Amino acid sequence: MLSPQTPIGSPFHYRSTAMEVAKDIDLTGKTIVVTGGYSGIGTETVRALASCGGHVIVGARRPDRAQEVLDEMDGTITILPLDLADPVSIDNFAHKVAALTDSLDILINNAAIMANPLTRDARGYESQFATNHLGHFQLTARLWPLLAAAGETRGARVVVLSSVGHRLNGLDLADPNFVTREYGKWPAYGQAKSANALFALQLDKIGAPHGVRAFAVHPGGIVTELQRHLTMEEQVAMGWFDEQGNVNEVFKTVEQGASTSVWCAVSPLLDGMGGVYCENCNLGAPATEETPRGSGVSPHIRDETLAAALWVKSEEMTGVSFAA
């Protein structure tokens, strides 16, 4: 049974950092996978989890750059090549993870692209949907036996990075690749982030009987490389920066932006829960007409029928299904 989408009593908040959330958590003997764990909030996610004694495996599209970034961190960290837009790379990564461990306690689907010009992968799939959702769908399916192995004995968690961008719009399962409709970088982003949240919803329903729980996360507004496709003029117009180039004070630091991912991965408050969308180290509240655009949960990402339909569509598009 899915958990209610209702905030709970959490000791953490909007400005909590990943290291504050990770304090006193012991992950000794546990294995964690973080995609894109060498840039933006991914770096601080890895730092916090590695500090807890776990073995963190980082999937990196640029392994050399990842090595430069992560070399200075304490803890056990392994870097493996991973390109989420390439199905062969995803399978190779999963095989290498399986060679390192027979179970996986935490999977954090963190890597993403945002608001880029229309590009397509080798299959012709629109890049934001393909990278942010389909790539992680395939990866989670390939790692499913390892997740289930941990889930059956001690519990496992999958954390899927969504975004408040899901409130921009839902998704069009009849044309997810913008073949018959005009491409817009923001509608494509809203679709991909909606898909991320819906994936967590359906994954939790399927995973719960096996001890695998899933959570969707909105990390908050943070200045990272995710904005690389946006001009400063666009970001000023959206209120992210002022005319002098100063970042909006409501934005989080990267350490704060990583906190909800880490909270969903390790918090004992979430034991027995799953299928929920989280923000600010808590469960998000359903959005109303008065809810600011920077927070809240739109009804379409809680639609179980839509989540099931997306699952079927994702299996069709990737040719991958989850092992029984």
Describe this structure in words.
With 324 residues, this protein is α/β, with parallel strands linked by helices. The protein has a single domain (18-314), classed as Rossmann fold, CATH 3.40.50. Helices cover 37% and strands 12% of the residues. It has ten helices and eight strands. It has helices at residues 18-22, 41-50, 63-70, 87-100, 127-153, 185-207, 232-237, 254-257, 259-266, 304-318, and strands at residues 31-35, 55-60, 76-81, 106-109, 156-161, 212-218, 276-279, 282-283. It has an eight-stranded mixed beta sheet, with helices on both faces. Helix 5 packs across helix 10. The longest helix has 27 residues, at 127-153. It is globular. The chain starts with 17 loop residues before the first helix and ends in a 6-residue tail after the last helix. The model has no long low-confidence stretch (mean pLDDT 95).
Mean pLDDT: 95
Helix content class = 25-40%
Strand % is 5-15%
The side-by-side strand order for the widest beta sheet comes to 3-2-1-4-5-6-7-8
Secondary-structure blueprint of this entry?
Blueprint: H1 18-22, E1 31-35, H2 41-50, E2 55-60, H3 63-70, E3 76-81, H4 87-100, E4 106-109, H5 127-153, E5 156-161, H6 185-207, E6 212-218, H7 232-237, H8 254-257, H9 259-266, E7 276-279, E8 282-283, H10 304-318
Parallel strand pairs: 1-2, 1-4, 2-3, 4-5, 5-6, 6-7
Antiparallel strand pairs: 7-8
